[in-house]
Amino acid sequence: MRTIKVSVVTPGGPVLEEEVEMVSTKAKTGELGILAGHIPMVAPLDIGAVRLKTGNHTEWVAVSGGFVEVNGQEVTILAQSAERAENIDIARAKQAKARAEKRLTDRQAAIDAHRAEMALKRALNRLDIAEHQR
Ligand code: ATP
Q1: CB under 6 Å to ligand 1: residues?
Q2: Cβ(68)–Cβ(75) below 8 Å
Q3: What is the pTM of this model?
Q4: Which end of the chain is more exposed for a tag (fewer CB within 10 A), N or C?
Q5: Are 106 and 57 in the same domain?
Q6: What are the start-end ranges of the H helices in 1-134?
């Protein structure tokens, strides 16, 4: 099968660059599966997983929103943050989850509920993805 080059880039620098057969991710408009020869496009991403498939091996990467760009034989994912499954600190994500849940249940006047919901979503996404590569 033909391969496609994928790069994941964050404000902190590149997270990965690989040749894979298929890139799957969740754009705001729905699931996207990108193979070599895909038409050029740009789409916004949700907090979710990027899956890199080659043969029957799948690598999971957690991303916290951003954009996917497909251009020629290259896929670039620009994300606010991104971690490969094996680099996810599970204890840290559990703490972030507990913090966000506490903020949402305490419902103090000054809390920014949307911000807490986003933090909870990032933490749940990391925990979910870390599970896939254990
Ligand atoms: P926290 O409250 O633990 O910082 P967060 O969701 O607010 O979580 P982000 O702002 O999304 O964190 O990310 C800040 C930086 O920390 C990014 O570089 C991100 O890749 C990294 N990061 C955040 N949580 C984890 C984690 N559980 N494991 C590994 N890296 C993480």
Answers
A1: 12, 64, 81, 83, 87-89, 92-93, 96, 119, 122, 126
A2: yes
A3: 0.94
A4: C
A5: no
A6: 90-106, 113-132
